[in-house]
TrEMBL record:
Signal peptide stretch: none
Domain of life: Bacteria
InterPro entries reported for this sequence: P-loop_NTPase (IPR027417)
Protein name per Swiss-Prot or TrEMBL: DnaA protein
GO biological process: DNA replication initiation
Gene3D superfamilies assigned: 1.10.8.60, P-loop containing nucleotide triphosphate hydrolases
GO MF terms held by the record: DNA replication origin binding
GO CC annotations, alphabetized: plasma membrane
Length: 228
């Protein structure tokens, strides 16, 4: 797609931070993510104090994980930072959020941590981009333990959810757009939450440079530059 607005004037653009609404009431629910929302809603009535949310990058895992983090008073950790030496201090937090389990490097340490969760009746939520059964885990005991945890999977978004996400992302940036523009973008963009985030961020930047509202020509140029 070629657009006369692909090249924009060279101007200074000050990237002001915008606040993304991150409460559960701000999370858009559809069939694709309802199971994950229900999982967070059920806490603290989880049968074993541990659960997994799986979904692709940009699917809303972090949003839901942060909702649980605040409710549980949990401490966040990246799976890649887990080590045998760090496990006792991590367990002392009482409630833990472990993000991106697919990036784990010390499998024995994570297995030890999960044992402590069970023995000490701690609370833990893990997130991963793929379901535990598809993770490249070499340690059989860890693979078995992860597969046994309650799992909620976030599926690819449907049209209704993507449309609502686009509207919300524009609203988070205090941008008003016409419904027809959202529909125009929806049928042309990549089908993912991450693509929606990238589109809105770039459209906002271009509109700021041009000092205009987000119009169809700006949307077309944004789709073009992002390769959609």
């Amino acid at each position: 797609m070629n657009s006369p607005m692909t090249t924009i004037p060279e101007q200074l653009v000050f990237e002001l931070p915008h606040r993304t609404a991150m409460g559960l009431e701000d999370f858009l629910v559809s069939e694709s993510n309802a199971a994950a929302v229900a999982l967070v809603d059920r806490w603290p009535d989880w049968p074993i104090g541990a659960a997994v949310i799986a979904g692709p990058r940009g699917s809303g895992k972090t949003h839901l994980a942060n909702v649980w983090l605040k409710r549980a008073g949990a401490t966040p950790f990246e799976a890649s930072a887990i080590s045998r030496e760090a496990v006792p201090a991590m367990a002392s937090a009482g409630a833990l959020l472990i993000e991106d389990v697919q990036k784990i490097t010390d499998e024995a340490a994570l297995f030890h941590l999960l044992n402590l969760v069970r023995e000490q009746r701690l609370q833990i939520l893990l997130t991963t981009e793929t379901v535990p059964g598809d993770l490249a885990i070499a340690l059989p005991d860890l693979r078995s333990r992860l597969k046994a945890l309650p799992l909620a999977t976030i599926e690819p978004p449907d049209d209704a959810l993507l449309r609502a996400v686009l509207v919300k992302l524009f609203a988070d940036r205090q941008l008003s757009v016409e419904p027809q523009l959202v529909d125009y973008v929806l049928v042309r963009m990549e089908r993912s939450m991450l693509a929606a985030e990238r589109f809105v961020a770039e459209a906002d930047r271009r509109a700021l440079v041009l000092q205009r509202r987000v119009t169809r020509p700006i949307a077309a140029a944004t789709l073009d530059v992002l390769g959609y």
